[in-house]
Structure formats: C-alpha cells, structure tokens
Automatic annotation (TrEMBL):
UniProt family annotation: Belongs to the acyl-CoA dehydrogenase family.
Residues annotated as domain Acyl-CoA dehydrogenase/oxidase C-terminal: 245-394
Residues spanning the signal sequence: none
Entry's EC annotation: 1.3.8.7
Top-level taxonomy: Bacteria, Bacillati, Actinomycetota, Actinomycetes, Kitasatosporales
Protein name, entry field: Acyl-CoA dehydrogenase
Molecular function terms, GO-annotated: flavin adenine dinucleotide binding; medium-chain fatty acyl-CoA dehydrogenase activity
Subunit and interaction comment: Homodimer.
Length: 409
C-alpha cells in the first residue's frame, strides 16, 4: 500500500492549508454574524460568496470531481487530505464547492445523467449558480433499508407523478436550491433491489410543499432539513436518472465516495477539537497549575492523538483501495470508516467539551455544534448498525467458505 502523495496533491494541500488559515478561519465569526442578522436563516451569507470567488480564482474548486474534465481529476487518495483540511471548519467544504449534498448529486449527474440533464443541472451546480438536495429518508419507515421506501413514482403517459413524504431533505430550504433528486418506487412488484428509481424534480414544481424545517439537536442548519410533502408532483419522463429500477444501484454508487468524504471531514472535526482542547488546557489554571499538567487531561490528549492517527490511516487505506481495486472491493473498509470516523470524532469533541467546561456547551466555541454534528452523522447516510452489519457479513463470509471446504474434505 502506497499512501505517498503526488507532487500535485502535496502542492494542493499546501495551498488549501494556507487558504484556510488566511481566509476561512477568520471568516467564521463573520459568517455566523451575517447569518444571525439575515431575514432568511437559510440565505447564503455575503462572506461565503466572497470566499467562493476567492477559492475559484485560486483553482481550489470542485476538487471532488474526478470524472472527465469537469473537476480537478484527483484520485480518492489525493482528495482525502484536502477534505480533512476543509473539514476543520464547518463552513470549509462549501467554500470550495465540495459540500454535501451537492457533491453526491453532481457525481450522480456526471456518471449517469444524459447530456441534456448535465447541461440543465450539472453545469450550474459545478459553477455554484444553484444548489440541490437529495430526498430519500422518510418519516414513517426505517429508510436505512431502501426496500421500505413508500414514495411512489407512477408513469402517466409522458410524465411521472410522485406522491409521498420525505424528511431531513438537507438543502431544500436554501433559496438557491433548484433541484431535488428523489428516490422512490416505480415498481413495488419488481425484485427487491429493482423497485426503486431516482427522479430529477425542479424545486419549484407544483405539489412540492415544505411542511417544516427540522432542527438537528436544536440547531437550525443554514441549508435546512426539510420535512417535505410530494402531492401529485408531475415531471417529464426524461427526468428519470439512468432508468427505472436503477435507484438502488445509483444510491450505492453515490454513497461510497460520499462516506469517504464524511470520514475525512470527521478527521478534520477531530483535529480542530484537539487543537482547541490543547489551547484551552495550556491557558487555564486549576488546583495550583495549568490543566495541561493534570494526568487525566494528558490522557485525553494522548488518546485523541492516537485515535486520530489510526482513523486517518484507515481512511487513507480505504481511499487507496477505492482507487486501485474499486468501490465494490473496498466495501468493507468503506463501511468501517463510516463507523470509526464519527465515533472517533465524537469522542474527541466530547473530551474537548469537557476540557472547556461551561464554555464547551455554549456557542462561544464551535465545539457544541461539532458535538451535535458528529452525533447526528452517526445516523445520517445509514446508521452505524447498518455499516457494522456489512463489516460483520464480509468478515464471516471467509469463514463460511472455509467451513464448506472442510466439510467437503
């Protein structure tokens, strides 16, 4: 396994690190203030538009996109450390047009969209002229099992008609959101993994109603997490993505690279939290000396560093496997990093909160927000238990083969 970075990847890391220090971290307080003062809590703060323009001018743009000539053409291994750097700030990924849910949606369109779909939706997404959302999770069923999805997509002549309800449709309340990619059932009688399809729905299509904006542990996200009702929503048949029955396969293809992106952002969360913890304990005095002299605090710091290093290596291994043998062959490792990344990040954030005392649960630092995010992401994109099931199944499979051979002998 070779985790060495190419000269180009190392140069991009240096440039992104410098950009984060010079522009992104200093803008965090401005971003929060502008968001608090805005009439619409989901509108893009002016400082973010400025940051995006600077990032694009410096060539730090669409770095996630590996398909064709639309992005930087980086491998997963080259992109992973860049997402870690961006993930050290909650606003970081959006600055570089590398934030969810747009990244996954753009990959879907790049890989499976028709030329017409790509021109209508992919090009403006790549240019950050519009935003998008992904409607999959439903409130009435366990959506971690896609077979449970109830939203119906029915063919009616030259149109598809959608009826159903989705929630935690992240991004739909952003005024710039113009596209919904929806997962629904086109044929409930088909084989289990051929029932689902994905449909491209313009945000302003009649029948799309946002019932409420769902908070996440009390926080209102700028992009918004919509509880959305689809009532007789009609779109042309040309809006199907790839074809009927392809939804489950598309979802798996979308989520593989997305889980690596999640994991590397989580490494960034953990690094930021460890930095804040170290700064705090060297500055605060209790019981006759700096908190940093307390044995339990030193253990927190040491364990955090060890866990972050272990996690980073696991994620880089997964990225390397995705590049060399493909997403399917790296399935176990990709499932493992989704679990490990958020567990480690949440644990490190929790220690940092404890080290900050009352300040850790306030909004004076980013820690409370990171605490909520790292906990919520253990559910988003499939709960931990789903990924643990995948890892266990893969692990047990080799023993079943062994048992079969032994029995035959």
């Amino acid at each position: 396994m070779d985790f060495g970075f190419s000269p180009r990847a190392s140069e991009l890391q240096d440039r992104m690190r410098s950009f984060m220090e010079q522009h992104v971290f200093p803008a965090e307080a401005v971003y929060d203030r502008q968001l608090a003062e805005a009439d619409d809590p989901h509108a893009l703060p002016p400082v973010m538009r400025e940051l995006k323009e600077k990032a694009r001018a410096e060539g730090l743009w669409n770095l996630f996109m590996a398909h064709g000539d639309r992005g930087a053409g980086l491998t997963n291994l080259e992109y992973a450390p860049l997402m870690e750097l961006a993930g050290r700030s909650i606003i970081g990924p959006e600055v570089f047009n590398c934030s969810a849910p747009d990244t996954g949606n753009m990959e879907l369109l790049a890989l499976y969209g028709t030329p017409e779909q790509q021109e209508q939706w992919l090009r403006p997404l790549l240019d950050a002229e519009i935003r998008s959302c992904f409607a999959m999770t439903e409130p009435e069923v366990a959506s971690s099992d896609a077979r449970n999805i109830r939203t119906r997509i029915t063919r009616d002549g030259d149109s598809y008609v959608v009826n159903g309800r989705k929630w935690y449709t992240s991004g739909i309340l952003d005024p710039d959101c113009k596209l919904i990619i929806l997962m629904g059932k086109t044929d409930p009688d088909a084989p289990a993994y051929r029932q689902q399809s994905m449909l491209l729905i313009p945000r302003d299509t009649p029948g799309v109603t946002v019932l409420r904006d769902l908070p996440m542990f009390g926080y209102t996200d700028r992009l918004g997490h919509g509880d959305v009702l689809f009532e007789d929503v009609r779109v042309p048949v040309e809006n199907i993505l790839r074809g009927e029955g392809e939804g489950f396969a598309l979802a798996q293809g979308r989520l593989g690279p997305g889980r690596m992106h999640y994991a590397m952002r989580a490494v960034g969360f953990a690094e930021r939290s460890l930095q804040l913890m170290c700064e705090r304990v060297t500055e605060r005095t209790a019981f006759g000396g700096p908190l940093a002299d307390q044995g339990v605090v030193r253990e927190w710091i040491a364990r955090s560093r060890i866990e972050i290093e272990q996690l980073r290596l696991l994620v880089l291994k997964s990225a390397w496997l995705m590049d060399t043998v493909g997403n399917a062959a790296a399935r176990m490792e990709v499932a493992a990093i989704k679990v490990a990344a958020l567990e480690v990040a949440h644990k490190v954030v929790d220690r940092a909160v404890q080290a900050h005392g009352a300040a850790g649960v306030s909004d004076d630092t980013v820690l409370a927000r990171l605490y909520a995010i790292t906990r919520a992401l253990r559910i988003a994109d499939g709960p931990d238990e789903v990924h643990l099931r995948t890892v266990a199944r893969q692990e047990l499979a080799q023993y079943k083969k062994t048992d079969t051979k032994a029995g035959a002998a």
